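Hey team,

Sharing the Methylenetetrahydrofolate reductase run so nobody has to redo it. Sequence (304 residues) first:
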Amino acid sequence: MKIKDIFERKKFVFSFEIFPPKPTTPLDRIYSTLDDLKGPSPDFISVTYGAGGSTRDRSPQIAIDVKNVYDIESLAHLTCIGSTRDEVVGVVDLLLESGVHNILALRGDPPQEAVSPFVGGDFSHAIDLVKFLRERYGEKIAIGGAAYPEGHIECDDPIKDLHYLKQKVDAGVDFLVTQLFFDNELFYRFVERTSIAGIEVPISAGIMPVVNKNQIERIVTLCGASLPKKFVRILHRYADDPRSLEEAGIAYATDQIVDLIASGVRGIHLYTMNKAHVARKITSNIETLREGFVNDKNNEEALL
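Structure output:
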């Protein structure tokens, strides 16, 4: 099933993101994680590429196994920077032949050893990949795109950033998944702006439970996410108490999700960081709310 159809059939879509282990780490580790993530019954699981494509050889196979071994819809990340059209076709054809019909089209990061500005491959931006995929594969695939509630870290003009997003959607994106954020008000303002701009595809909110202090430095460096005062207080209070910080991080993410659901969010995409026990706790915390959406949908269908 294509993910755009899941959004059409369900009032609320709940999904996970995982990443492949490093090339030096046995693949068994990710399958152990998937064993634990199957229980919460996500609507789909996305599989990332590594930074600079460092794990891209493993990503398609894991995405295929999510679909065919675990019987969960799979969203395969596909970064295009430094790639040729033939390389992209090779990956997408393999996915389609294996029953995976969902692609998250991303620019990706240049290789770590690359000089700036990086030049290489047939694609410069995610929109180039979206256009190519839509032209070549039509409706055989569902295409997801990334969105940035606080704006892309490389674009200092929020209006221009929204303009680029609209162009990407118009080029063929079926749904959006946002970058992580810790302040829901930023997300609500972003959704309001997308509506004004005429962006009508479903938007899934990206939530990352922060369970150790090392994550924060990486997050701020990579995506520039702002940290609300409430969040900073939690970090200061539990910085030297890893167990308490994990519990506080789970609680904070749960509160975010409950508020988002109450406000009518179309989907939650949980960045699991391959920590299945964290994802399971959060899923358990919101289980009643998820069941409520299923019952609401069933009641609506009974009236038709």
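Residues 10 and 230 are 33 Å apart (CA to CA).

Ping me if you want the raw files.
A.
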